[in-house]
Amino acid sequence: MEVNVKNINNLISKVYKDSIADEIGIEVGDILLSINGERVEDIIQYKFLISDEYIELEIQKQNGRVYLYEIEKDYDEELGIEFTNPIIDKAKSCRNKCVFCFIDQLPKGMRETLYFKDDDSRLSFLQGNFVTLTNMSEDDINNIIRYRISPINISVHTTNPELRRKMINNKFAGKLMDTMRRLADAGIEMNAQIVLCPGYNDKEELERTLEDLASLHPYVHSAAIVPVGITRYRDNLAKLEIFDEKSAGETIDQVHKLQEKYLKELNTRFAFLSDEFYIIAKRPLLKYDEYEGFIQFEDGVGMITKMGTEIINYLDSINDERLNKSKKVSIATGKSAYEFMCNVAEKIMDKFKNIEINVYRIKNNFFGETITVSGLLTATDLIDQLKDKDLGETLYITRSMMKADEEIFLDNITLKELEEKLNIEVVPCQNEGIDVVDKVTK
Question: Which of 49, 211, 262, 335 is exposed most, by the fewest CB atoms within 10 A?
Answer without folding.
Answer: 211
